[in-house]
């Protein structure tokens, strides 16, 4: 009993301690192409074996940079696997995430040295590889901060015709909900793409530092930069510990503040210039800590910060603003850049020098709106039912990124609903062999559907009649059979209907026939047996259900009449025979009547011989 109570107390305190401490952030690391889970030094981070991919081929990897995780495999995506392939990862708790993808090179001599391709997260393009990426450590991966709200994340790779995308690893690391909060624009519709992270005054990259710190900071790579100009500035470093480094929401590693660049007498301005994509908005984060032993208090080092010549921060006094020496100070600002360069200048105010410990630059990307989920599901059902070959891709979102829509799908943006929908689908002459699924009717906005010239079999789903926006429907040159569903008569917007060269049979819905009078252009020729509108044969033997019931009823009535007649005739004959016998037995008084009767009998015999059979045969036609 006592043991039980102790156990219970232990459980109670354990739960108490874990509920007061923040739970560990969600972390998913995938080693692409790997058959087994792996752990990599020096952190012994755990990588899951490859899963959740839509295609591609595993291969041995060549790592382009020393910062690439030391993994042995990758997954690459030749065009035969489709122009876009994705990792679709489920069960990701709602939250804010740092998503990072490392690129690799296939370790086989015949492969392109440097594939160039695009990377998207949740339909938003976050990275385009530039030629020369293999020789820049900070270009061997793509990283972005995204909000994931629906429990899944889709990371896609889009071929651009320059080699096969090859992926070493995918990391989905939860960060603080407010990480990199930069102002009112920050939020669910915005993705921050990491453009650059620099640690100043050192030649040693800072990597895996987050792993030994607070995991809510993610896992950042800091590219080292020892000086900005050859002799214009100089590095500083310290072993002293730094206060206020690892605090919410960004939890920077202390090591980041233990080195810095300071300006010198020969060039008091401290300036750093980097190349950027023009006409984008950037979020800039500058890190300071007074680590120079010659500065002993506030007021001794004061400077302005200018971006491309415009002052963004005035009178920065690191000691005063951070509260002490060896204490972290982080400033952030948002800038809209029209040119191709970003220059950060620190301009001293009081004759002393400027200091800078680290720089982070993010491109602010408006997240793409997505395609209506029911239309995505409809296209996925169509992909399956038609047996769309891999080369089509059809992974990720059909309409976004806008640069890489699914082949064959025409997309339209709906401003009012803030989503994309499909208004056209052209899969003509693609050698498709499947059937048309009912789900096709979920493409509510479809105006144009062309599936001409394939080998599609089965029937036309009657649900197609609910896609009332359809104006052009071309299913010609396939193997469709059965009849044209009556529901197609509801397609009042239909201007063009090509059903020629199939195996369709039965009556063309009357409502479609009526449409022809309004100048619509329909082609029903070359089918097994369509009928019922001008130009096709008349629907002779193909009678409606009502007519069949009528005919059946008539035939039964005739048969009944015939039976009644035969019974009457037989009865009458019996009566005559009987009266003959009676007359013969009784003699004269009935003689006259008898001759009369026998004449009658002969007449009726003649009559029967001549007409009774024909009457029976003609019965139905006479009745009808
Ligand atoms: C990958 O490398 C291993 C040896 O390290 C080799 O056995 C294997 O065949 C290679 N796989 C491929 C696909 O080249
Ligand atoms: C970034 O700067 C904005 C505006 O100056 C400020 O409101 C915000 O708190 C800063 N973010 C962080 C995480 O310090
Ligand atoms: C940059 O930000 C401004 C104001 O927030 C916005 O109007 C503009 O569209 C943004 N530009 C880009 C390229 O995102
Ligand atoms: C459908 O595609 C075929 C083959 O590409 C083309 O000939 C036909 O004109 C298209 N149909 C319509 C209605 O545009
Ligand atoms: C249509 O063709 C399929 C075979 O492709 C056959 O199973 C089906 O019975 C046919 N349906 C009609 C209505 O002829
Ligand atoms: C209708 O389809 C047939 C082939 O099935 C074709 O020969 C004919 O030219 C088409 N008619 C029109 C008006 O397009």
Structure report:
- The chain has 624 residues and is α+β, with helices and mostly antiparallel strands.
- It folds into 3 domains: 22-175, Sandwich (Jelly Rolls); 189-368, Jelly Rolls (Sandwich), CATH 2.60.120.430; 373-531, Ribonuclease Inhibitor (Leucine-rich repeat, LRR (right-handed beta-alpha superhelix), Alpha-Beta Horseshoe), CATH 3.80.10.10.
- It is built from 7 helices and 35 strands.
- Strands 1, 2, 3, 4, 5, 7, 8, 11, 13, 14, 15, 19, 22 and 25 form a 14-stranded mixed beta sheet that branches. A 6-stranded mixed beta sheet has the order 26-27-28-30-32-34, with no helix packed on it.
- β2 and β3 (45-49) form a beta hairpin.
- α6 (545-586) packs antiparallel against α7 (591-623).
- It is elongated and about 155 Å long.
- The chain starts with a helix and ends with a helix.
- The structure holds 2-acetamido-2-deoxy-beta-D-glucopyranose (6 copies).
- The site of one 2-acetamido-2-deoxy-beta-D-glucopyranose has 3 residues, from β31.
- One 2-acetamido-2-deoxy-beta-D-glucopyranose binds next to loops.
How far the N terminus sits from the C terminus, by CA atoms, comes to 97 Å
Radius of gyration: 42 Å
Number of domains: 3
CATH topology of the largest domain, by name, is: Jelly Rolls
Q: What are the distinct ligands in this entry? A: 2-acetamido-2-deoxy-beta-D-glucopyranose
What is the CATH superfamily label of the largest domain? Galactose-binding lectin
Shape verdict: elongated
CATH architecture of the largest domain: Sandwich
Structural class: alpha+beta
Count of helical regions: 7
Rounded mean pLDDT score: 87
Task: Compute the number of strand runs.
Answer: 35
Reading off the top of the CATH hierarchy, the class of the largest domain is best stated as Mainly Beta
How would you sum up the major sheet? Answer: 14 strands, mixed
Poorly predicted segments: 9-20, 587-624
* Portion in strands: 25-35%
Determine the fraction of residues in helical runs and give it as a percent range: 10-25%
């Amino acid at each position: 009993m006592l043991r039980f109570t102790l156990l219970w107390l232990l459980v109670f305190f354990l739960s108490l301690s874990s509920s007061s401490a923040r739970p560990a952030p969600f972390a998913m690391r995938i080693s692409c192409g790997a058959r087994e889970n792996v752990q990599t030094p020096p952190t012994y981070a755990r990588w899951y074996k490859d899963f959740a991919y839509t295609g591609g081929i595993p291969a041995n990897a060549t790592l382009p940079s020393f910062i690439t995780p030391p993994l042995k495999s990758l997954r690459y995506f030749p065009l035969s696997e489709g122009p876009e392939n994705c990792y679709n990862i489920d069960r990701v708790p709602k939250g804010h995430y740092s998503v990072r993808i490392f690129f690799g090179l296939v370790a086989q001599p015949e492969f392109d040295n440097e594939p160039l391709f695009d990377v998207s997260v949740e339909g938003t393009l976050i990275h385009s590889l530039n030629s020369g990426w293999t020789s820049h450590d900070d270009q061997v991966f793509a990283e972005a901060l995204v909000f994931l709200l629906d429990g899944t994340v889709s990371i896609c790779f889009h071929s651009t015709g320059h080699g096969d995308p090859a992926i070493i690893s995918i990391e989905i690391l939860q960060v603080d909900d407010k990480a990199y909060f930069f102002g009112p624009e920050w939020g669910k519709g915005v993705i921050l793409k990491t453009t650059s992270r620099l640690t100043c005054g050192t030649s040693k990259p800072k990597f895996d530092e987050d792993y030994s710190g607070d995991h809510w900071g993610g896992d950042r790579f800091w590219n080292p930069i020892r000086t900005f100009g050859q002799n214009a500035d100089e590095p500083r470093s310290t072993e002293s510990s730094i206060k206020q480094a690892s605090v919410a929401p960004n939890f920077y590693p202390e090591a980041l503040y233990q080195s810095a660049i300071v300006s010198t007498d020969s060039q008091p301005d401290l300036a750093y210039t980097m190349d950027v994509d023009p006409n984008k908005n950037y979020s800039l984060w500058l890190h300071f800590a007074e680590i120079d032993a010659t500065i002993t208090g506030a007021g001794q080092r004061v400077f302005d910060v200018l971006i491309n010549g415009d002052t963004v921060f005035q009178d920065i006094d690191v000691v005063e603003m951070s509260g002490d020496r060896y204490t972290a100070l982080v400033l952030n600002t948002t800038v809209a850049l029209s040119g191709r360069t970003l220059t950060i200048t620190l301009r001293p105010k009081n004759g002393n020098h400027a200091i800078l410990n680290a720089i982070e630059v993010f491109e602010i990307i408006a997240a793409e709106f997505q395609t209506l989920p029911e239309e995505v599901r409809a296209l996925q059902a169509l992909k399956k039912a038609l047996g769309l070959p891999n080369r089509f891709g059809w992974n990720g979102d059909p309409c976004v990124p806008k640069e890489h829509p699914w082949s064959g799908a025409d997309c339209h943006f709906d401003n009012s609903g803030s989503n994309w929908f499909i208004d056209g689908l052209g899969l003509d002459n693609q050698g498709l062999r499947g059937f048309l699924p009912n789900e096709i009717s979920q493409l509510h906005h479809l105006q144009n559907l062309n599936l001409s010239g394939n080998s599609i079999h089965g029937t036309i789903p009657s649900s197609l009649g609910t896609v009332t926006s359809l104006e052009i429907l071309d299913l010609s040159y396939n193997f469709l059979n059965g009849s044209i569903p009556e529901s197609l008569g509801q397609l009042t917007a239909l201007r063009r209907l090509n059903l020629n060269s199939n195996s369709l049979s039965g009556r063309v819905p009357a409502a479609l026939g009526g449409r022809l009078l309004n100048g619509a252009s329909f082609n029903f020729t070359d089918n097994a047996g369509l009928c019922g509108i001008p130009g096709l044969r008349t629907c002779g033997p193909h009678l409606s259900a009502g007519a069949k019931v009528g005919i059946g009823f008539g035939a039964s009535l005739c048969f009944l009449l015939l039976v009644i007649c035969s019974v009457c005739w037989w009865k009458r004959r019996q009566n005559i025979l009987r009266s003959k016998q009676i007359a013969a037995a009784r003699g004269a008084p009935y003689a006259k009547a008898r001759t009369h009767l026998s004449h009658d009998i002969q007449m009726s015999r003649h009559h029967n011989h001549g007409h009774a059979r024909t009457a029976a045969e003609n019965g139905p036609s006479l009745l009808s």
